[in-house]
Amino acid sequence: MQCRFCKTELKHVFIDLINSPASNSYLNPEQLNEPETYYPLKVYICHNCFLVQVDEYQKSDALFNSEYAYFSSYSRTWLAHAQKYTQEMIARFGFSASSKVIEIASNDGYLLQYFKEKNVPVLGIEPTANTAKVAMEKGIETVVEFFGTSLAKKLSAQNIQADLLLGNNVLAHVPDIRDFVAGMQVILKPAGVITMEFPHLMQLVDNNQFDTIYHEHFSYLSFYTVKQLFESVGLEMFDVEEIPTHGGSLRIYAKHKNDNSKEISPRVAALLAKEIKQGITDLNYYHNFQQKAFDIKLSLLSFLTEQKKAGKKVAAYGAAAKGNTLLNYCGVKNDLVDFVVDSNPHKQGKYLPASHIPVVNEAYLKQEKPDYVLILPWNLKDEIKDQLAYIRDWKGKFVVPIPSLQID
To answer: Signal sequence: where (predicted)?
Structure first.
């Protein structure tokens, strides 16, 4: 296997999470007695460019199919983040009715709706037809295709280019990451701005976030590596922010290399120095991550088996991809966790892949009154604890598995 950025032969394993189905391959009831397809989930570290990556065992067009189950608008926290971002970008760069904002992986229009409210023209690019349909119903023009240089050239030939080109949590999802970034260079106006947000590799390593590894995430990104990647196609970082979303993310700001209208923020050099000091360019930094994940596995299994022995009921909240990685690596099935609650009606009535835990609505939680609620999307734990505060009425407790098992 070669590095998908620099083509170096990959020799170093970061972590092996064994085999599992694709994390978003939820099952209908009639599929429960059918065989499931499992894929290796082994992650490598490139000793040359330090891109952390999985092999493309399942093709992206199969992962992001027409019935994609993730809709961004079902998280209040994420909607608030999108609205705040819109306000900040308009205030900082002055986007207006004469600008064009293009979002790659625009999902159900969760973010572009806020630019549209401000009368800023928008275009979404989204490969999953069912989420794109919801965006279009909101009046957001959407191109239903995968993004890359081919689509970028086609749109540019139609004089469609971006003053602001953005993508949240998409950079990690593309198998040909260099072609993807090269496409951004093509579709960006000469004085345009790119912002991308993605989970920070340093947070993944330092906080044991192994459950954020799944087949949809082909790459795990540091600022050091992303800066190299953008420079390889003629783009330059001019700012970067560390933000709290998804357990700790980066928001990068890029421009054309020959665009001298934007000053390079000192935060660029500061974050590079911080990463290097932490060890991001040293293979030793990545050692022992397998053991950290194994320790969490033992803690969670021990807790769940103890509760079952005591006759307690454990439910989960959030049928998120990260939850499926955690449950499947730990070997948790529906005999240890009774059900999982999710606010997304597209997931309700289905079952989690491999574990076969049923996905239900919140009314079922109130009816069943479990002793413990395991919060799978731990990055939203505050929002979820607020929403489900009533479990305290029956002395219910919350369990958060990452970075270590916590019972509250």
So the answer is: none
**If you average pLDDT over every residue of the chain, what do you get?**
94
E strands in 46-109:
52-54, 101-104
Query: Is the separation of the CB atoms in 378 and 199 below 8 Å?
Result: no
Q: Which helix (H) or strand (E) holds 18?
A: strand 12-20
Among the listed residues 355, 288, 279, the one whose alpha carbon sits nearest the alpha carbon of residue 50: 279
Spell out the domains of the chain, with CATH numbers in brackets: 72-278 (3.40.50.150), 289-407 (3.40.50.720)
Instruction: Say if CB 151 and CB 80 are below 8 A apart.
Output: no
Buried b (16+ CB within 10 A) or exposed e, 217-230: bbbbbbbbbbbbbb
Question: Is there a contact between 33 and 361 (Cβ–Cβ < 8 Å)?
Answer: no
pLDDT digits (tens, 9 = 90+) for 349-393: 999 999 999 999 999 999 999 999 999 999 999 999 999 999 999
Q: In the predicted model, what is the mean pLDDT of residues 36-58?
A: 89
Which residue(s) pair with 373 in the sheet? 315, 398
pLDDT at 73: 61
Residue 99 has, within 13 A of its CA and on its CB side, a CA count of 20
3-class DSSP state of 264? coil
Confidence of residue 60 (pLDDT cuts 50, 70, 90): very low
**Could you give the CA distance from residue 13 to residue 394 in angstroms, rounded to a whole number?**
45
Question: Residue 206, Cβ neighbours under 10 Å: how many?
Answer: 14
**Does residue 44 contact residue 12 with C-beta atoms inside 8 Å?**
yes
Instruction: Look up the pTM and report it.
Output: 0.89
Q: Is a pLDDT exceeding 60 seen at residue 333? A: yes
Q: From CA 362, how far away is CA 148, in angstroms rounded?
A: 39
Cβ neighbours for 197, distance < 8 A, ≥ 6 positions apart: 167, 168, 169, 243, 245, 249, 250, 251, 252
Contact 252, 196 (CB under 8 A): yes
In whole angstroms, give the CA distance from residue 324 to residue 154: 37
